[in-house]
Amino acid sequence: MGKIHGFKYVLCLSSSILLNLYLLDSVLRRDGELTWSKSAAVEAEAVASISCSGHGRAFLDGLFSQGKPVCECNSCYGGPDCSEFSSGCLADADSGNPLFLEPFWIAHAADSAVVVAGWHRMSYIFDDGSSISKELERHIRQLHAVTRNAVTEGRFILFGTGSTQLLIAAVHALSQDDSPSPARVVASIPFYPVYEMQTNFFRSMDFKFQGDASDWKNTSGSSLNFIEFVTSPNNPDGQLKEPVLQGPFVKTIHDHAYYWPHFTAIPAPANGDVMIFTMSKITGHAGSRFGWALIKDEGVYTRMSRYLSLNTMGVSRDTQLRALKLFKVALEGEGKEIFEFGYKTMRNRWEKLSKTFSGSTRFSIQKIAPRYCTYFEKIVGPSPAYAWLKCEREEDKDCYAVLKAAGIISRDGVLFKAEDHYVRLSLIKSQDDFDFLLNRLNALVSEEGAKII
C-alpha cells in the first residue's frame, strides 16, 4: 500500500514538473513573437505595400472603397492607382509641405515604425507630474549637440503643438512686463506672414503688430518695448539673419525652423534667449504637429509654460512617442544619413533651378553664397527650402499672375510684405511636384528666346 502511495506521489510530482516545463517552454517560445500587435502590424504593412504607381500613398486612416484603401495621389495625378497624369493641371509650388524626405522614411520603414498599445499614456501627465517626455527631451538636446546648431546648456525646454503655437506663446510671455503700452511686435521684410496674422488674431492688450523692424531702428534705444521675430534661415529667401533692433527694451524670438544641415550651412550654434524649432522641417513630419522652444530665462519659461498649459494642456503623448522614434532614427550615425540625404536632395533641386534661370533676363532668384558648415566640416553650397523669385520686367509687376498664366501656383510676395514683383516657390514638396514645377519653369524661360528671335 505504501509503495502505491509513493508511486502516485512520484507520478504527480513528475507530472507537475513536466507541466511547468511545458508552460515555461511555451512562454519562452512566445517571447519575441508578436501577440496582440500582430494584427495591427499586418494591417499597417498591407496598406503600406500599396504602390499607387509611385505617385501617391494609401493610409490606414484614409478612405476605403469596397473594403480596400483608396490611393491619395500626388498633384496632377489621378485614377484608382494614381497612374493617370493630367498635363493641363497647375504646378503647385505654394505650400511648405516637406514631402522631399518621404523616400528616406520609406527606406527606413522598419526603424521608424511605431506600434501604440491601446492603453499607452492615458493620463494627462507623466509620472513626474509634467507633460513632457524626459527621454524625448534628452534626444532633442542630443540632436542639437550632434548638428551643432543650438546651445542647449542652461536652457529650459518646452514642447508645443508645432512651432506655430510656440510663436504666440513666446509673444505672450515676452509682453508681460507691466508696461502701460502694448509691446510692438515687428519683423524684417520679407517675413513669414503668420507672425502678423497670429498677433492680430489674438488682439491682446499686451502686444500689437507694428510692421517692419527697420522702420523702428532709430527708436529701439528708447523706452519703447519691442518684440522682434528673427527667422534664420529666413522664410522666404533662405538668408541667415540677425536682429535689426538692439537695446534694453528689445526682446527677440529666434525662429530656427530651417536651421538644419539640409537647408543651410551651420556656421555656429544659435545662442538666443528664446529659440524655436519644429519637427516638420527636420524629419518632414509636418502632420504630427510637434515643436519645441529653448528658453534661457526662467520667468519667460514659466509664462510660456502656463500659456501652453491653459491652451492645450501639453502635446499629445502619441505625438511625443512618434517624435522620439523618429529622432532616434535621425540620430543614427550622428545624423549623417538623414542630413546627407536631405542636403543632396535640396542641393540638387537648387542647382537645377539655378541652371533654369541662369540665362534669363526676365526672372531671377536669390543669391546665397557657399559657406563653411560646422556639421559637415566643409564649405557647402546653398540648399534653401524656397526660391525667392523676382519678375525683373516692369510690365510683370504682378509676378504671381505671370506665373499663374504659365501654369504655376506660387505664394505671392505681397503676403511677405514684399513688392508684388516677388513670389515664393516651394522646393520641399514631393519629387513629382518639383519635376513638374521645373518643367513649367523651363517652358516659361524658353519663351524669352523665342520672343527675341
Automatic annotation (TrEMBL):
The keyword Ribonucleoprotein does not apply. One of its GO terms (biological process) is amino acid metabolic process. InterPro entries: Alliinase_C (IPR006948), Alliinase_N_sf (IPR037029), EGF_alliinase (IPR006947), Ethylene_sulfur-biosynth (IPR050478), PyrdxlP-dep_Trfase (IPR015424), PyrdxlP-dep_Trfase_major (IPR015421), PyrdxlP-dep_Trfase_small (IPR015422). Gene3D superfamilies: Aspartate Aminotransferase, domain 1 (3.90.1150.10), EGF-like, alliinase (2.10.25.30), Type I PLP-dependent aspartate aminotransferase-like (Major domain) (3.40.640.10). Keywords: Pyridoxal phosphate. Signal peptide: none annotated. It holds the Pfam family Alliinase_C. The keyword Cell membrane does not apply. Its cofactor is pyridoxal 5'-phosphate. Belongs to the alliinase family. PANTHER family: BIFUNCTIONAL ASPARTATE AMINOTRANSFERASE AND GLUTAMATE/ASPARTATE-PREPHENATE AMINOTRANSFERASE-RELATED, TRYPTOPHAN AMINOTRANSFERASE-RELATED PROTEIN 3. This is Uncharacterized protein. It comes from Tetracentron sinense (Spur-leaf).
